[in-house]
Design a protein that fits this description.
Blueprint lengths: L6 E5 L2 E4 L3 E2 L7 H11 L3 E3 L7 H10 L8 E6 L6 H15 L6 E4 L7 H14 L5 E4 L3 H8 L8 E5 L7 H9 L3 E5 L11 H10 L3 H11 L3 E2 L6 H8 L9 H6 L16
Parallel strand pairs: 3-4, 4-5, 5-6, 6-7, 7-8, 8-9, 9-10
Antiparallel strand pairs: 1-2
Helix pairs in contact: 1-2, 2-3, 3-4, 7-8
Length: 271
Amino acid sequence: MVTLDATVEIAAGVHMPSFGLGVFRAGDATYDAVRWALEAGYRHVDTARIYRNEADVGRAVRDSGLAREDVFVTTKLWNDDQGYDRTLRAFDKSLEQLGLDSVDLYLMHWPLAGKRLDSWRAMEAILESGRAKAIGVSNFTERHLRELSNVANVKPAVNQFELHPLLPQPELVEYCRVQDIVVEAYSPLAKARHFDEPAIVAAAKALNVTPAQVMIRWGIEKGFVVIPKSQRKERILENMAVFDFELGHHLDALDAIETRQRTAWDPYTVD
Protein backbone atom coordinates (compact mmCIF):
# COMPACT_ATOMS: atom_id res chain seq x y z
CA MET A 1 0.00 0.00 0.00
CA VAL A 2 1.20 3.53 -0.77
CA THR A 3 2.39 5.42 2.31
CA LEU A 4 2.72 9.09 3.26
CA ASP A 5 6.46 9.01 2.69
CA ALA A 6 6.22 7.55 -0.84
CA THR A 7 8.19 9.39 -3.51
CA VAL A 8 8.62 9.31 -7.26
CA GLU A 9 11.89 9.98 -9.04
CA ILE A 10 11.35 12.92 -11.40
CA ALA A 11 14.97 13.38 -12.46
CA ALA A 12 18.26 11.69 -11.71
CA GLY A 13 18.54 11.66 -7.93
CA VAL A 14 15.52 13.94 -7.45
CA HIS A 15 12.70 12.31 -5.50
CA MET A 16 9.35 14.09 -5.25
CA PRO A 17 6.94 13.17 -2.44
CA SER A 18 3.76 11.75 -3.95
CA PHE A 19 1.60 13.71 -1.51
CA GLY A 20 1.87 17.38 -0.64
CA LEU A 21 0.21 20.64 0.32
CA GLY A 22 -1.06 23.18 -2.18
CA VAL A 23 -1.27 26.82 -1.06
CA PHE A 24 -3.25 28.45 -3.87
CA ARG A 25 -5.08 31.49 -2.46
CA ALA A 26 -4.07 30.58 1.08
CA GLY A 27 -3.38 34.25 1.77
CA ASP A 28 -2.51 35.20 5.35
CA ALA A 29 -3.10 31.61 6.43
CA THR A 30 -0.17 30.30 4.36
CA TYR A 31 2.49 30.35 7.09
CA ASP A 32 0.37 28.50 9.64
CA ALA A 33 -0.93 26.03 7.06
CA VAL A 34 2.58 25.07 5.97
CA ARG A 35 3.82 24.80 9.55
CA TRP A 36 0.87 22.58 10.52
CA ALA A 37 1.40 20.41 7.46
CA LEU A 38 5.12 19.96 8.07
CA GLU A 39 4.51 19.18 11.74
CA ALA A 40 1.95 16.56 10.71
CA GLY A 41 4.33 14.82 8.32
CA TYR A 42 3.87 16.51 4.94
CA ARG A 43 7.18 16.94 3.13
CA HIS A 44 6.07 18.63 -0.08
CA VAL A 45 4.79 22.21 -0.51
CA ASP A 46 3.58 23.65 -3.81
CA THR A 47 3.48 27.43 -4.27
CA ALA A 48 3.76 29.88 -7.19
CA ARG A 49 4.79 33.44 -7.84
CA ILE A 50 1.20 34.42 -8.70
CA TYR A 51 0.00 33.09 -5.33
CA ARG A 52 1.96 35.88 -3.63
CA ASN A 53 2.84 33.70 -0.68
CA GLU A 54 6.32 32.41 -1.51
CA ALA A 55 7.78 34.41 1.40
CA ASP A 56 5.42 32.77 3.90
CA VAL A 57 6.14 29.33 2.47
CA GLY A 58 9.89 29.85 2.73
CA ARG A 59 9.64 31.20 6.27
CA ALA A 60 7.52 28.24 7.36
CA VAL A 61 10.01 25.80 5.84
CA ARG A 62 12.91 27.50 7.59
CA ASP A 63 11.05 27.70 10.90
CA SER A 64 9.98 24.05 10.76
CA GLY A 65 13.28 22.80 12.12
CA LEU A 66 13.47 20.29 9.29
CA ALA A 67 16.58 19.98 7.17
CA ARG A 68 16.18 21.76 3.85
CA GLU A 69 16.74 18.54 1.93
CA ASP A 70 13.81 16.95 3.75
CA VAL A 71 11.23 19.38 2.35
CA PHE A 72 10.38 19.40 -1.36
CA VAL A 73 9.51 22.93 -2.54
CA THR A 74 7.88 23.75 -5.88
CA THR A 75 7.23 27.20 -7.29
CA LYS A 76 6.11 28.40 -10.70
CA LEU A 77 6.72 30.94 -13.43
CA TRP A 78 3.71 33.17 -14.09
CA ASN A 79 2.57 34.53 -17.48
CA ASP A 80 3.62 38.14 -16.83
CA ASP A 81 7.19 36.92 -16.36
CA GLN A 82 7.47 34.73 -19.45
CA GLY A 83 10.15 35.19 -22.09
CA TYR A 84 13.83 34.34 -21.74
CA ASP A 85 15.19 37.28 -19.77
CA ARG A 86 12.01 37.81 -17.77
CA THR A 87 12.01 34.17 -16.73
CA LEU A 88 15.53 34.43 -15.35
CA ARG A 89 14.61 37.56 -13.38
CA ALA A 90 11.37 36.01 -12.12
CA PHE A 91 13.19 32.95 -10.85
CA ASP A 92 15.69 35.13 -8.99
CA LYS A 93 12.77 36.98 -7.40
CA SER A 94 11.09 33.72 -6.39
CA LEU A 95 14.26 32.51 -4.67
CA GLU A 96 14.55 35.86 -2.93
CA GLN A 97 10.94 35.66 -1.73
CA LEU A 98 11.35 32.07 -0.59
CA GLY A 99 14.64 32.83 1.14
CA LEU A 100 16.08 29.65 -0.31
CA ASP A 101 19.19 28.92 -2.34
CA SER A 102 17.32 26.57 -4.67
CA VAL A 103 13.96 24.97 -5.34
CA ASP A 104 13.32 21.30 -5.94
CA LEU A 105 10.98 21.89 -8.89
CA TYR A 106 10.31 24.94 -11.05
CA LEU A 107 7.22 24.80 -13.26
CA MET A 108 5.99 26.93 -16.14
CA HIS A 109 2.53 27.74 -14.86
CA TRP A 110 0.77 28.11 -18.21
CA PRO A 111 1.55 27.43 -21.91
CA LEU A 112 1.60 31.11 -22.88
CA ALA A 113 1.41 31.43 -26.65
CA GLY A 114 4.41 33.07 -28.29
CA LYS A 115 6.62 32.94 -25.19
CA ARG A 116 6.56 29.44 -23.76
CA LEU A 117 9.48 28.12 -25.82
CA ASP A 118 11.76 31.03 -24.89
CA SER A 119 10.69 30.61 -21.28
CA TRP A 120 11.63 26.95 -21.42
CA ARG A 121 15.11 27.79 -22.72
CA ALA A 122 15.58 30.01 -19.68
CA MET A 123 14.31 27.27 -17.39
CA GLU A 124 16.86 24.89 -18.89
CA ALA A 125 19.54 27.45 -18.04
CA ILE A 126 18.22 27.64 -14.47
CA LEU A 127 18.33 23.85 -14.23
CA GLU A 128 21.90 23.82 -15.49
CA SER A 129 22.85 26.37 -12.83
CA GLY A 130 21.70 23.96 -10.13
CA ARG A 131 19.30 26.42 -8.53
CA ALA A 132 16.35 24.25 -9.58
CA LYS A 133 16.81 20.52 -9.20
CA ALA A 134 14.13 19.76 -11.79
CA ILE A 135 11.94 21.70 -14.22
CA GLY A 136 8.49 21.00 -15.59
CA VAL A 137 5.24 22.47 -16.80
CA SER A 138 1.69 23.02 -15.63
CA ASN A 139 -1.53 23.04 -17.65
CA PHE A 140 0.19 21.74 -20.78
CA THR A 141 -1.95 19.71 -23.15
CA GLU A 142 -0.57 16.95 -25.35
CA ARG A 143 -0.22 19.42 -28.23
CA HIS A 144 1.81 21.83 -26.08
CA LEU A 145 4.02 18.98 -24.89
CA ARG A 146 4.64 17.78 -28.44
CA GLU A 147 5.61 21.28 -29.52
CA LEU A 148 8.01 21.59 -26.60
CA SER A 149 9.58 18.21 -27.33
CA ASN A 150 10.62 19.47 -30.78
CA VAL A 151 12.94 22.12 -29.32
CA ALA A 152 13.70 21.17 -25.73
CA ASN A 153 17.10 19.88 -24.67
CA VAL A 154 15.55 18.73 -21.42
CA LYS A 155 12.06 17.28 -21.33
CA PRO A 156 9.65 18.36 -18.58
CA ALA A 157 10.03 16.20 -15.50
CA VAL A 158 6.44 16.91 -14.41
CA ASN A 159 3.16 18.08 -15.89
CA GLN A 160 0.83 19.47 -13.23
CA PHE A 161 -2.79 19.84 -14.29
CA GLU A 162 -6.33 19.60 -12.94
CA LEU A 163 -7.24 16.00 -12.15
CA HIS A 164 -10.07 14.48 -10.12
CA PRO A 165 -12.81 11.90 -10.72
CA LEU A 166 -14.93 14.41 -12.62
CA LEU A 167 -11.99 15.38 -14.86
CA PRO A 168 -9.73 12.32 -15.22
CA GLN A 169 -8.16 13.38 -18.56
CA PRO A 170 -7.11 9.81 -19.48
CA GLU A 171 -5.59 10.69 -22.87
CA LEU A 172 -3.29 13.34 -21.42
CA VAL A 173 -2.38 11.12 -18.48
CA GLU A 174 -1.46 8.28 -20.83
CA TYR A 175 0.60 10.55 -23.08
CA CYS A 176 2.58 11.81 -20.08
CA ARG A 177 3.23 8.29 -18.88
CA VAL A 178 4.42 7.13 -22.29
CA GLN A 179 6.77 10.12 -22.38
CA ASP A 180 7.95 9.42 -18.82
CA ILE A 181 6.56 12.73 -17.54
CA VAL A 182 5.30 12.53 -13.96
CA VAL A 183 1.62 13.46 -13.60
CA GLU A 184 0.75 15.80 -10.75
CA ALA A 185 -2.87 16.51 -9.83
CA TYR A 186 -3.91 19.96 -8.73
CA SER A 187 -7.43 20.66 -7.47
CA PRO A 188 -7.83 16.97 -6.56
CA LEU A 189 -10.88 17.98 -4.49
CA ALA A 190 -12.45 19.93 -7.38
CA LYS A 191 -12.70 22.86 -4.94
CA ALA A 192 -15.21 20.85 -2.86
CA ARG A 193 -17.91 21.45 -5.48
CA HIS A 194 -18.81 17.81 -6.05
CA PHE A 195 -18.78 16.19 -2.63
CA ASP A 196 -22.42 15.28 -3.24
CA GLU A 197 -21.64 13.23 -6.37
CA PRO A 198 -23.44 9.91 -5.76
CA ALA A 199 -20.45 7.67 -6.45
CA ILE A 200 -18.26 9.74 -4.13
CA VAL A 201 -20.91 9.76 -1.39
CA ALA A 202 -21.42 5.99 -1.70
CA ALA A 203 -17.71 5.27 -1.41
CA ALA A 204 -17.34 7.60 1.57
CA LYS A 205 -20.22 5.98 3.43
CA ALA A 206 -19.10 2.44 2.70
CA LEU A 207 -15.50 3.10 3.75
CA ASN A 208 -16.37 5.39 6.68
CA VAL A 209 -14.27 8.24 5.31
CA THR A 210 -15.05 11.71 3.96
CA PRO A 211 -15.77 12.64 0.33
CA ALA A 212 -12.53 14.62 0.32
CA GLN A 213 -10.59 11.55 1.39
CA VAL A 214 -12.25 9.50 -1.35
CA MET A 215 -11.20 12.00 -4.00
CA ILE A 216 -7.64 12.23 -2.73
CA ARG A 217 -7.40 8.46 -2.51
CA TRP A 218 -8.62 8.19 -6.10
CA GLY A 219 -5.62 10.24 -7.25
CA ILE A 220 -3.22 8.22 -5.15
CA GLU A 221 -4.50 4.91 -6.52
CA LYS A 222 -4.20 6.30 -10.04
CA GLY A 223 -0.52 6.87 -9.37
CA PHE A 224 -0.59 10.67 -9.46
CA VAL A 225 1.31 13.09 -7.26
CA VAL A 226 -1.54 14.74 -5.32
CA ILE A 227 -1.44 18.18 -3.67
CA PRO A 228 -4.72 19.00 -1.90
CA LYS A 229 -4.99 22.53 -0.55
CA SER A 230 -6.37 23.60 2.80
CA GLN A 231 -5.85 26.47 5.21
CA ARG A 232 -7.45 24.71 8.19
CA LYS A 233 -5.49 22.45 10.52
CA GLU A 234 -8.25 19.87 10.84
CA ARG A 235 -8.59 19.61 7.05
CA ILE A 236 -4.84 19.36 6.58
CA LEU A 237 -4.88 16.40 8.97
CA GLU A 238 -7.99 14.90 7.33
CA ASN A 239 -6.45 15.15 3.87
CA MET A 240 -3.40 13.13 4.89
CA ALA A 241 -5.46 10.36 6.51
CA VAL A 242 -5.82 8.48 3.24
CA PHE A 243 -3.16 5.80 3.54
CA ASP A 244 -4.99 3.23 5.66
CA PHE A 245 -7.79 2.27 3.27
CA GLU A 246 -8.29 1.30 -0.36
CA LEU A 247 -11.17 2.11 -2.69
CA GLY A 248 -11.55 -1.44 -3.95
CA HIS A 249 -14.55 -1.81 -6.26
CA HIS A 250 -15.50 1.84 -5.65
CA LEU A 251 -12.62 2.82 -7.92
CA ASP A 252 -14.56 1.60 -10.96
CA ALA A 253 -17.60 3.66 -9.96
CA LEU A 254 -15.46 6.76 -9.55
CA ASP A 255 -13.81 6.16 -12.92
CA ALA A 256 -17.26 6.03 -14.50
CA ILE A 257 -18.23 9.54 -13.32
CA GLU A 258 -16.23 11.51 -15.92
CA THR A 259 -18.29 14.63 -16.58
CA ARG A 260 -15.26 16.69 -17.69
CA GLN A 261 -16.14 19.41 -15.19
CA ARG A 262 -13.29 21.87 -14.78
CA THR A 263 -12.89 24.14 -11.78
CA ALA A 264 -9.95 26.08 -13.25
CA TRP A 265 -8.75 27.46 -16.57
CA ASP A 266 -9.05 25.42 -19.74
CA PRO A 267 -5.62 25.13 -21.43
CA TYR A 268 -7.19 23.59 -24.53
CA THR A 269 -8.22 27.12 -25.50
CA VAL A 270 -4.54 28.14 -25.82
CA ASP A 271 -2.94 28.09 -29.29
